[in-house]
Amino acid sequence: MTRLPVLRGKGAKVLAMAATAAILALPIAATAAPDNSAGSDSIGTSQAGSHATTPACLPEQAGFASCFAIQLNNPSDWQGQHVSPSGAPGPSSSTPPSGYGPSDLINAYNLTTSTTGGAGETVAIVDAFNDPNVASDLAVYRSTMHLTPLCGTVSGSCAGQFSVKSFGNRSSSGWGEEISLDVDMVSAICPNCNILLVEAASNSYSNLGAAVNYAKTQARTVAVSNSYGGSESSGELNYDSYYTSSTVAITASSGDGGYGVEYPAASPYVTAVGGTTLKRDTTTSQTRPGWSETAWSGAGSGCSSYETRPSDQTTVTNIPKSCGNRAVADVSADADPNTGVAVYDTFREPGWMIFGGTSVASPIISSVYALASNTSVGSVAAAAYSYRPPAGSLNDVTSGSNGSCGNDLCTATGGWDGPTGNGTPNGIGAF
Questions:
Q1: Rounded Cα distance, 426 and 332, in Å
Q2: 106-138 pLDDT per residue, tens
Q3: Residue 271 and residue 383: Cα distance in Å, rounded?
Q4: DSSP 8-state symbol, 205
């Protein structure tokens, strides 16, 4: 795998395009066909705090999306700490991976219904390209985390269903990492849920949108998670119809580049999911016993250049008057690679790894929607996030920032702010 330094600013896109051309010019085996927009391999390293990370996907040209998974290069740099499972699913004592697992996330977000809710409901994951190892890798993750296997990943006793709809057969190691991260996070938050993985033929917005259309029309789908995006452009309005639904919650990661808006999170029809740094904290000063959260410096946020403001945001006083359009994000969850999650992936990868990025947060929130859904009447999730959640149903994140904008679009504060939205789940009441 070719790895190059990640640069920021105007020169980054030029060098990324040059590197892409060089990589695509190399001889490639017939069984490892590259995708058509440079997403076939992760590249480079960047510094998240003091620790090196590697983005799973390259920056993309207009009309194509990049996945938002970020690997923590050295697992020993992980800053988290596991909680005692206390009956909740936790890692096997014989092979405990670094990175947060189900018991940690369930504990942090007060998801007491995780082990009982979601049965019969489907969380759909939309990604690009094909991961041939996803079913066997998911089986290892669930076994290690003491989760009942899903039918479709093992033979014998199972609960729930794992299914894959592939619109193409080309593979990408970077998107393979994304796929493993996404299905593992749904398993962590809603172990009883069915998981439908929809693999788009490529990472073009038209192909990803077609995959979203397929996912949201399948029986029992209550939420569709999208952990990808790219810079805004006037053409994004042509894709909004893909992310529109009156019965299915559609979540989208806000991006990993800090202050700045990405699409499809900018769409007013999705729940835009920002990111936090989630740490174990036993100090008595914490309002949430055992945990503390700050805005993650990499979380995307800001004011859309093209999308209109959804009606629920019209009364949000923290949005600056200068922003008359859609403001990002709506809600958030853990995304910092330094406090990232354990993921199992063997497609051109070693197995256990630690991942962050708002790619972690989007499937978490989609899974919380599924936990909140009423299984007796089917899909009842709201089409877009409601800004009138019950009091106390979100953890308000009030510190940290993702850039220097001079207002709440990039600085965490009480109530709504750009990097963390209205906050992180405190149970299922807000969803």
A1: 11
A2: 999 999 888 889 999 999 999 999 999 999 999
A3: 8
A4: H
Q: Read off the pLDDT of residues 257-274 as tens digits, 9 standing for 90 and up.
A: 999 999 999 999 999 999
CB atoms near residue 133 (< 10 Å):
18
CA distance 353 to 48: 16
Select from 3.30.70.120, 1.10.4160.10, 3.40.50.2000, 3.40.50.200 the CATH code of 70-425.
Answer: 3.40.50.200
Residue 193, classed as helix, strand or coil, is coil
Say how many residues make up the chain: 431
Strands (E), 68-177: 70-72, 122-128, 162-166
- What own/partner pairs with CB < 8 Å and gap ≥ 24 does 281-290 have? 288/395, 288/426, 290/83, 290/107, 290/108
List strand residue ranges (DSSP E) for 22-119, in order.
46-48, 51-55, 66-67, 70-72
Sorted by where each begins, the domain ranges of the chain are 10-67, 70-425
Give the pairing type, strands 394-395 and 424-425. Answer: antiparallel
Amino acid symbol at 391: A
pTM of the full predicted structure? 0.88
Question: What would the two tokens of residue 271 be?
Answer: 């729940």
